[in-house]
Amino acid sequence: MPRVIHFDLMSEQPEKLVEFCASVFNWEITEWNGPMEYWLVGTGDRSKEGIDGGIGRGKPVDQVVLTLDAPDLDALVAKSVAAGARVAQPRGPIPGVGWYAAVQSPDGNLFGLMQDDPAAS
C-alpha cells in the first residue's frame, strides 16, 4: 500500500502561508533554490513517523485536508485563530479515536487537527 511521503500547499501569497505555518505549527520552512518559487517544509523530527512537504505559489486547493497531531487541541485552535485562521469545524469527537477540529488559514488552506483520546465519545 502506498504511503503519503510529501504534501504540497498552494497559496497566492505563499509568504503569508509560510509565516502562518511556522508560527502556529513550528514547522521549519526554507526557500528552495530551484527553478520555481517553492518553500521546503520540515514538520518535525525525522526519526518519527510523519511527512514533510512544500509550499508553492498558486491557487489553494480546497479538496485536500492535512490532519495534524494536536497534543492540546484547544490550545492549537486558539493559536491558529490568533494567527488569523478561522474555525472551519469546531472540536468534536471521533468516538474511540480522539477529538477533531479544523481551521482555515488566512489564505484559505484547510488544516485538520486531531488530539488522540481513545475515550472520546
Folded structure, characterized:
The protein is of the alpha/beta class. It has one domain: 2,3-Dihydroxybiphenyl 1,2-Dioxygenase, domain 1. Helices cover 18% and strands 40% of the residues. The chain has two helices and eight strands, in the order E-H-E-E-E-E-H-E-E-E. A four-stranded mixed β-sheet has the order 1-4-3-2, with helices on one face. A hairpin with a 6-residue loop joins strand 2 and strand 3. The chain is globular, with a radius of gyration of 15 Å. The model has no long low-confidence stretch (mean pLDDT 89).
Question: Could you write a compact summary of the structure shown?
Answer:
With 121 residues, the protein is α/β, with parallel strands linked by helices.
**How many structural domains?**
1
Query: What is the straight-line distance between the termini?
Result: 30 Å
**Total beta-strand segments:** 8
Biggest sheet details: 4 strands, mixed
Arithmetic mean pLDDT: 89
Helix content: 10-25%
Assign the CATH class.
Answer: Alpha Beta
Order of the strands making up the biggest sheet: 1-4-3-2
Number of helices: 2
Output the radius of gyration: 15 Å
State the CATH architecture: Roll
The CATH superfamily is identified as 2,3-Dihydroxybiphenyl 1,2-Dioxygenase, domain 1
CATH topology name:
2,3-Dihydroxybiphenyl 1,2-Dioxygenase, domain 1
Which shape, going by the Cα principal axes?
globular
- What amount of the residues lies in strands? 35-45%
* Topology as a string of helices (H) and strands (E): EHEEEEHEEE
The stretches of 5 or more residues where confidence is low (pLDDT under 50) are none
Classification by helices and strands: alpha/beta
